[in-house]
Design goal:
Elements (H helix, E strand, L loop, with lengths): L3 H41 L3 H84 L2 H28 L5 H25 L11 H5 L2 H8 L5 H32 L1
Helix pairs in contact: 1-2, 2-3, 2-7, 3-4, 4-7
């Protein structure tokens, strides 16, 4: 399906081509009219006896001039059109390159956001274990909640923009990541308000939370690894494939 920009370009190209053709036709008509007028003028200035011979010679000359004018004008028009087409193609290539650059910027931004969200999730258990407090637990799970929301936005934006060649597969992997984070956040919502408040120690209760324990564990037997990390790595692989492929295409075009 053609975009609005493509339709506008085709209309403008057709308009310019039509104008150029009309200018050529007007030039041809002017040459023919001037030639005919010159012939009539010269023919009327000579006597009757010489008119036949002169008529033949003048007619030959005028036909030659007319042919030269028409052919010369046609060749000039063709060369002019070729030059304009080259200029239009340069403009089209520049616009395609700008569009591709913008697309790659969006792709890189989407990848960076997924990586940033995962960094937040990875830091979460480290900071919770370091501080061993209700306050830090609350702060870090809120950060995880923000990361989940941004993952959801990335999934929606990448699918609606058609920036990637496999948006459904990417969203399936991002959904795995979101589901795991929802699982962690739900536990926090259910238990946070019942945790002891300072000066009482809440760490014993926090460390017994099974879903947080899974995140803290983080090895290949954990749901964090099997669901979140596997989905994360596959989503990155799919997204980065488009970035690398488009970069290769740009290199080939510029070579």
């Amino acid at each position: 399906m053609k975009t609005l920009d493509q339709e506008e370009k085709e209309i403008l190209d057709a308009y310019e081509f039509g104008n150029s053709l009309w200018r050529y036709m007007i030039t041809v008509i002017v040459v023919l009219v001037v030639s005919a007028a010159l012939f009539v003028f010269l023919y009327s200035t000579i006597d009757q006896s010489a008119r036949m011979d002169v008529k033949k010679e003048v007619l030959k000359v005028l036909l030659q001039l007319a042919a030269i004018g028409v052919i010369g004008g046609f060749i000039s028009w063709i060369l002019n059109e070729r030059s304009k087409e080259k200029e239009r193609e340069v403009v089209r290539q520049q616009k395609r390159a700008e569009k591709q650059d913008a697309l790659n910027d969006f792709r890189r931004s989407a990848v960076a956001r997924v990586v940033a969200a995962t960094n937040v999730v990875r830091k979460c258990p480290v900071l919770i274990e370091s501080h061993q407090s209700k306050k830090t637990y609350g702060e870090q799970i809120r950060a995880v909640l923000d990361a989940r929301l941004d993952l959801s936005l990335v999934g929606h934006e990448q699918q609606s923009s058609n920036a990637f060649t496999k948006p459904l597969e990417i969203n399936a992997e991002i959904s795995k990541m979101e589901d795991y984070l929802n699982w962690i956040v739900t536990e926090w919502k259910d238990h946070y308000k019942n945790l002891p408040v300072p000066p009482h120690d809440a760490w014993d209760a926090i460390s017994d939370l099974p879903r947080l324990a899974d995140l803290r564990k983080g090895d290949e037997t954990s749901r964090f690894y099997r669901e979140y990390l596997v989905g994360y790595r596959e989503a990155l692989r799919l997204m980065r494939a488009d970035i690398f492929n488009s970069t290769d295409d740009n290199d080939l075009r510029s070579a």
